Amino acid sequence: MSGNSQTILELRNVHKRFGPLIVLRGVNLALERGKTTVIIGESGTGKSVLLKIMLGLIRPDSGEVYFEGRRVDTLRPREWVEIRKQFGFLFQMGALFDSFTAAQNVGFPLAEHTDYSDEEIERIANEKLAMVGLYGVGPKRPAELSGGQRKRVALARAIALNPKIILYDEPTTGLDPLRSDAINDLIIKLKDELRVTSVVVTHDMTSAFKVGDRILMLQQGQFIADGTPDDFRNSTDPRVRRFVTGDADLDVEQATA
Ligand SMILES: Nc1ncnc2c1ncn2[C@@H]1O[C@H](COP(=O)(O)OP(=O)(O)O)[C@@H](O)[C@H]1O
Ligand SMILES: [Mg+2]
């Protein structure tokens, strides 16, 4: 319910198609403030589209989106700029500006959206870098950093404006297990220290189990499962089990059972 202050963001009966391709067919979701909600699902099921709808980058064909109790899907792009300042987002291709230093990358949203002096921006940027474990990395350029470090610079940039909510799109994809786990730890740390609400889109079940307070599985345009990590571990739903165990053979077992 949009009037419930425990709910920071809500999608109501959201539909989205691209031409003949129906991506979302009636998605309902209320995000509880301060919690981490994980959305899992096969590649191409519409997870990124869902995040873009939450951010006002894609407009649903029908349905409603509420942020802090206010209907936002009908807002104009200019009005969205104000709303979007309260969001941090870490996109899959979370590209950094190559010619900027790490600190300049992190400071970019501050330069764009605040009146802070250059010195103040640099101080805040370095503070955010320290928060993601990159103390002293400010002067380096992206080319001098590892993939995991670049991801963390992008995360420092995502929290530059002290967002209320952070959207993570496949934050651990392409990282080795150690670096993935460092990102998981950061998602948890930011939740605890900044008390942000988080949405994590992933197909990495280790990450989903570790960071999620709640997990939802998107399939064929709708959420087909919704529960705690333990609910997912213990699920008997073959669609969930197949995804959780990464075991395509379950298809065969089902077919031959
Ligand atoms: N702007 C767009 N125009 C046309 N098709 C799109 C667009 N964005 C996404 N799609 C399609 O919608 C489907 C869902 O995409 P996406 O949300 O990126 O999936 P994923 O779950 O892997 O993040 C895919 O088939 C994708 O090709
Ligand atoms: Mg995606």
Descriptive labels:
10 strands; four-stranded antiparallel beta sheet; Rossmann fold; binds magnesium ion; about 260 residues; binds adenosine-5'-diphosphate; 10 helices; alpha/beta; six-stranded mixed beta sheet; single chain
Characterise this structure:
The chain is α/β, with parallel strands linked by helices. It has two domains: 1-86 and 165-182 and 189-257, Rossmann fold (3-Layer(aba) Sandwich); 93-162, no CATH class. 39% of the residues lie in helices and 25% in strands. The protein contains ten helices and ten strands. The protein has helices at 47-54, 77-84, 102-113, 118-131, 147-158, 177-194, 205-211, 229-233, 238-245, 249-256; strands at 7-18, 21-32, 36-40, 62-67, 70-71, 87-90, 165-169, 197-201, 214-219, 222-227. It has a six-stranded mixed β-sheet with strand order 6-7-8-3-9-10, sandwiched between helices. A hairpin with a 2-residue loop joins strand 9 (214-219) and strand 10 (222-227). Helix 3 (102-113) packs across helix 4, helix 3 (102-113) runs parallel beside helix 5 (147-158) and helix 4 crosses helix 5 (147-158). Residues 18, 21, 23, 41, 43-49 line the site of adenosine-5'-diphosphate.
